[in-house]
């Protein structure tokens, strides 16, 4: 069965774009509390996985790059998020040496009603 993943990729890309910030020398950052609301990291992680399979470290670096270094999630936030997405069926993992490579599970995502 061929799955048209274009609508999902566009939706998830829009979410990721919302969190990308242009670099600017004039940008003043005041960090107070958490950078993301509940569930935001899950959606952003799904968006990154929709682009390409990734290791947890790749997700950390991608978020740091897309926010021009303003936000760099800790491994203590990213890896539990990946575990949750895998247990919920939204992502799948495969061993790559000592690391796990996560990919999006389109079949599960497209079969769920939101």
List the helices and strands and how they pair.
Elements: H1 6-18, H2 40-51, H3 56-66, H4 75-87, E1 91-96, E2 99-104, H5 106-111
Antiparallel strand pairs: 1-2
Helix pairs in contact: 1-2, 2-4, 3-4
Tell me briefly what this model is.
By secondary structure, the chain is mainly alpha-helical. Helix content is 48%, strand content 11%. The protein has helices spanning 6-18, 40-51, 56-66, 75-87, 106-111; strands spanning 91-96, 99-104.
Give an account of the 3D structure.
By secondary structure, the protein is mainly alpha-helical. It has one domain (6-111): Arc Repressor Mutant, subunit A, CATH 1.10.10. The protein is 48% helix and 11% strand. The chain has helices at residues 6-18, 40-51, 56-66, 75-87, 106-111; strands at residues 91-96, 99-104. A two-stranded antiparallel ribbon has the order 1-2. A hairpin with a 2-residue loop joins strand 1 (91-96) and strand 2. The longest helix has 13 residues, at 6-18. It is globular, with a radius of gyration of 15 Å. Residues 20-33 have low confidence and may be disordered.
């Amino acid at each position: 069965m061929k799955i048209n993943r274009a609508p999902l990729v566009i939706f998830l890309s829009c979410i990721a774009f919302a969190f990308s910030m242009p670099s600017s020398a004039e940008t003043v950052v005041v960090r107070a509390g958490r950078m993301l609301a509940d569930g935001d990291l899950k959606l952003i992680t799904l968006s990154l996985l929709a682009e390409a399979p990734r290791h947890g470290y790749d997700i950390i670096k991608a978020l740091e790059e897309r926010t021009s270094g303003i936000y760099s999630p800790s491994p203590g936030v990213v890896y539990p998020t990946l575990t949750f997405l895998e247990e919920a069926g939204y992502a799948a993992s495969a061993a790559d040496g000592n690391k796990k490579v996560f990919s999006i599970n389109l079949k599960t995502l497209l079969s769920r009603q939101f």
